[in-house]
């Protein structure tokens, strides 16, 4: 009858809309490229976390993505994302720096007129949190509790190996084709130093700092 015909037409239209949405998502996902022109591979897995867009994890403030993955989606090679990969830090995206409610941190964000580029405890006792939605000027609208993968200010004790400016040492790290699992004084006027951030695929050091006194000892390395 007429009602059945209309119902079938509506179903066909809904299916068509869903197909279009899927195609648009696929195009957007594949359009993100690295600065060298390689296509980002989404989703990809890194250190047990699945990423569906670019991330800055373990790469300082530089966003990156997988350019090659294994059959199970694990990162094999990567590249720095180009500027038009605007999906980075999208609040509803999955992966990267997730909060306990499943939404992702948005950095930078503002709270009480202070700008934060990492999780903060401000106004929340001993719990680290971040914005998951911000206004057009960066003010926090919604927030979530940060998980272990999220960047946080250093809380190193005097017994923990870190740098004199409070950054955590990252081990192992590679410098001059040698992999170190402790501080080294190589090329630093006999002053022990360590990496504070590394390349996510080969552990090559990106930034470094001079080690605190508590880190001094045997400067181990893996030949």
UniProtKB/TrEMBL annotation:
The keyword Cell inner membrane does not apply. Residues 35-83, 100-148, 164-213 form the Fibronectin type-II domain. Keywords: Disulfide bond, Membrane, Repeat, Secreted, Transmembrane, Transmembrane helix. Disulfide bonds join 54-81, 119-146. Gene3D superfamilies: Fibronectin, type II, collagen-binding. InterPro entries: FN_type2_dom, FN_type2_sf, Kringle-like, SP_Capacitation_Regulator. The chain crosses the membrane at residues 14-31. GO terms for cellular component: cell surface; extracellular region. Coiled coil: none annotated. It is found in: Secreted. One of its GO terms (molecular function) is heparin binding. Belongs to the seminal plasma protein family. PANTHER family: FIBRONECTIN TYPE-II DOMAIN-CONTAINING PROTEIN, SEMINAL PLASMA PROTEIN. This is Fibronectin type-II domain-containing protein. It comes from Lepeophtheirus salmonis (Salmon louse).
């Amino acid at each position: 009858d007429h009602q059945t015909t209309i119902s079938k037409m509506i179903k066909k239209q809904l299916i068509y809309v869903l197909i279009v949405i899927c195609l648009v998502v696929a195009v957007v996902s594949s359009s993100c490229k690295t600065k060298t022109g390689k296509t980002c591979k989404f989703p990809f897995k890194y250190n047990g976390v699945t990423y569906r867009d670019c991330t800055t994890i373990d790469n300082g403030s530089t966003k990156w993505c997988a350019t090659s993955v294994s059959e199970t989606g694990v990162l094999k090679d990567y590249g720095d994302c180009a500027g038009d990969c605007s999906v980075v830090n999208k609040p509803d995206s999955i992966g990267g720096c997730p909060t306990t409610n499943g939404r992702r941190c948005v950095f930078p964000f503002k709270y009480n007129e202070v700008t934060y580029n990492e999780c903060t405890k401000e106004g929340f006792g001993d719990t680290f949190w971040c914005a998951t939605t911000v206004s057009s000027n960066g003010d926090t609208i919604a927030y979530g509790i940060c998980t272990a993968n999220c960047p946080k200010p250093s809380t190193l004790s005097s017994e923990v190996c870190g740098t004199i400016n409070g950054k955590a040492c990252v081990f192992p790290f590679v410098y001059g084709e040698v992999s170190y699992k402790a501080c080294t004084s190589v090329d630093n006027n006999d002053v022990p130093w360590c990496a504070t951030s590394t390349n996510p695929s080969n552990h090559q050091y990106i930034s470094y700092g001079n080690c605190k006194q508590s880190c001094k000892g045997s400067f181990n390395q893996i030949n």
